[in-house]
Amino acid sequence: MSIRDETTQVPIATKDSSRRLKRTAVVIEAAVIAVLIWAAAVPLAGVDLRVTTGGTVQTIGPVQILVMALLAGAAAWVVLAVAEKVSRRPRRIWFPAAATAGVVSLAGPLFSGASMAAMLVLLGLHVAVGGILTVGLLAVAGPRQSSQ
């Protein structure tokens, strides 16, 4: 089965594969940028990236940064997929949902009990990852193609 796309016919599977590839690239980009920010802040600038949660001090390393950025990307992808499933205009759902999640996520660094330098790095990480995911996934959002 194929759909009309301007002047050529493109198989539906190809469009879905292309969309998945672009979304994967956005999620990976967000994770890589997060690790690069960590690398600039911790080993290069000497920021002690420690937070206190539940009375326990935890050092934030590149593995935690990478895993959390990838998890955030996966969660964002799921929210976008649901928006595409339930709406003909998923961007109208996606952007407010992503922006709200981004703003709420800033509470973590603000109340982390971290030093000022660590808090600023964590805020920068949240803004960078959230911004990349919000704008990057918005760019590839669209209604699902029906397979009639």
Description:
With 148 residues, this protein is mostly helical. The protein has one domain (2-139). It is 68% helix and 11% strand. It is built from five helices and four strands; from the N terminus they run ββαββαααα. It has helices at 12-44, 62-86, 91-105, 107-110, 116-139; strands at 2-5, 8-11, 50-53, 56-59. The strands form two sheets. The protein has a two-stranded antiparallel ribbon. The chain has a two-stranded antiparallel sheet with strand order 3-4. α1 (12-44) runs antiparallel to α5 (116-139) and α3 (91-105) packs antiparallel against α5 (116-139). It starts with a strand and ends in a 9-residue tail after the last helix.
What would you say about this model in short?
The chain is mostly helical and 148 residues long. The chain is 68% helix and 11% strand.
Map the helices and strands.
Blueprint: E1 2-5, E2 8-11, H1 12-44, E3 50-53, E4 56-59, H2 62-86, H3 91-105, H4 107-110, H5 116-139
Antiparallel strand pairs: 1-2, 3-4
Helix pairs in contact: 1-2, 1-5, 2-3, 2-5, 3-5
